Amino acid sequence: MQVRVRIRRYDPAQDQRPRYQEYVVDAEPEDRLLDVLNRIKWEIDGTLTFRRSCAHGVCGSDAMLINGVNRLACKVLVRDLGSTITVEPLRGFPVVKDLVVDMTGFFKAYRAVKPWLINDETPPPTERLQSPSERERFDDTTKCILCASCTTSCPSFWSNPEYIGPAAIVNAHRFIFDSRDRGAAERLDVLNSREGVWRCRTIFNCTDACPRGIEVTRAIQDVKRLLLTERV
Amino acid sequence: MHYEFDAVVVGAGGAGLSAALELARQVGQTHRIAVLSKLYPVRSHTGAAQGGIGAALGNVEEDHWEWHAFDTVKGSDYLADQDAVEIMCREAIECVYDLEHYGLPFSRLEDGRIAQRRFGGHTRNYGEGPVHRSCYAADRTGHMILQTMYQQCLKHDVKFFDEFHVLDLIIHQGRCAGVVAYEIATGRLHTFHAKAVLFATGGFGRMYKVTSNALALTGDGVAIAFRRGIPLEDMEFFQFHPTGIYRLGILITEGARGEGGILRNNDGERFMERYAPTIKDLAPRDMVSRAIYWEIRNGRGINGKDYVHLDLTHLGREIIETRLPDITDFVRTYLGIDPVKEPIPVTPTAHYAMGGIPTDVDGRVVTDASNTPLPGFYAAGECACVSVHGANRLGTNSLLDILVFGRRAARHMAQYIQQVDMPAMPDDPEQWSRQTIARLMEGDGGERHGQIRAELQSLMMDNVSVFRTEETLKTALEGLAGLKERYGRVTVQDKGRRFNTDLLEAIELGNLLELAEVTTFAARQRTESRGGHYREDYPNRDDQNWLKHSLVSRGEDGGLVWDSKPVVITRFQPQERKY
What we know:
CATH class of the largest domain in chain A: Mainly Alpha
Distance between the termini of chain A: 58 Å
Shape of chain B: globular
Radius of gyration of chain B: 22 Å
Oligomer: heterodimer
Largest interface: A-B, 63 and 62 residues
Radius of gyration of chain A: 20 Å
Number of strands of chain A: 7
Number of helices of chain B: 16
CATH architecture of the largest domain in chain A: Orthogonal Bundle
Strand content of chain A: 5-15%
């Protein structure tokens, strides 16, 4: 089949403003959108610029706005997109070039929640014990690949880029609810601040956007509930 | 710009992060350490590893590191260096406990200890039957390792240069003196002057058409080292993983068979019973990949086509969705198939380079058959060849390799950088990089790198994959010569400096071509079959003539030069490899 791909192009070094460029290419219904983008880049227009690596939805490089929703280009198939496909960069981050965005702020928010195990107790000579149900408690949020699909689909983030955003909260959740972690208080201080979890308006865009199927909004609610019941 | 560091780590996958973390822990307060990666954080391909990390914890049943070492040596078809294998299997246990202490969310047994599953080629008591040795976190163990190591590096304030693509290695007056890197966002070249450099740049599966490897896996570090005169070891050994998703090559973990999955041909027969009666579907990857192709050649592919079935349907929804959630998702997404109800179409997929930059057990790069180190240059992980994998790597041993030898290299580096001064620098370290970029940007040869890459990948897939003969290898070498000649006329369309991935892909193709040539040349030299290298015209292993590592370098006339070095044998004498 033939597909028409409309791509938002912008090179701040050369262009006054963003523009849309259209490419018509042959594609199989089972092709990933990433396959189509690669075909355009390799066969038609080498200047088209996007990030990509693993090509099967685990590295998080190719999150972009596809037909108006955040998806990984390697995890959505042409047959699910129709014959006209519009591709734009993630919203809310500065554009470096075409579909490549500057994620400095995103990783800064991630670092703010201290995303590492905090536990100063001397560990045993073997593993620390953790029951399957304790492990299950934070399983969902261990899946995050930091692709930023959630954060950049969040209207609260669009209106206030200082909001720490769903991805950082997901990663805080991953540790707060880990029975081995002792850093909940430090993280909750960050999340309870003005730019923390209370900016979330429970819109659920983040959950819809997550390519890993993480129940992001629920994780945020878990954190809010913890703040309400145990600390405030 | 000109940067100065004591130690530079190139690559931010498992090996690079493990080394960076160890450097930070040992000398982070007193010495300057940098990590350069061409990717953003946590994009490296360690994150795609699924099934687990091998360590004889014995949490489920009796196990010993000596059994693990035996399996690794036997799996390697006796080409692995046994001193290195012993170190790896012994240190595996401490390494896994360290990961747990760093916070890695392993799956757990009912009693709270780390869960373990069966995996290909891992046996109890020197080959009696499969053993539970693979420590896992569902089927996303690599993801958890990558995240956990990155988190620990952040905790220890490691300095990262994200999206810095290393183009060259600086060697001057017999020492490694740093690297030259291209800053992707700006198109600027930078010199990183350093006392020690570790390459942890991963593999090069993208030389093949069907591969489980990320688009980024173009062997940059291996090609750079080779270009700078380091011979490459055992490059003829490239592993094809038996269960890639049909046509796409996306990996379906061996853990699927570890949990009880079965390979079936068109007759519904569990054909691995014929090839490996003792451990059947859990035979090592080289054997299973060959078996699949033999089934297909004999007309027993599904509906006569070029694939077989991986059947999980008897495992039940609970096991499949809790222990193999990611591959379930892949199969549903890319094939529209529910593995709970239907078998999965699979074929072998190019997966792992056993060969690479030769190192000793401390990660020091060695430059000749007598293992002379190049001071200040280290390598670890898939880009390196220690060699712990020999002619065929066992599943779960790559995650182990990156952690054990990444850390060992870092410990050696930490000592080294405290003992030496900054090395001298050549006059113009950026010359090669500048000229290469200029040629690709300004030339008018009109060749497109995309076209050449596609031809390279088909050529290698058709001629240098699971089965090889003198004829196919000769065809490949001739084809490669033509592609290299055309590569000299490649020009990129993107002439800008900002985020020029057109240029980077052209440079990466140059690296792939270089390594494809070495792989094919080494494969043609080795007139025997061993592990992942199977010559149909020489179908037997020949210990008399070939129990040795190959070393390939570039001669002064531009041709390739073959050399060899002995295999280190400690406790396991070579014997016939049957399962």
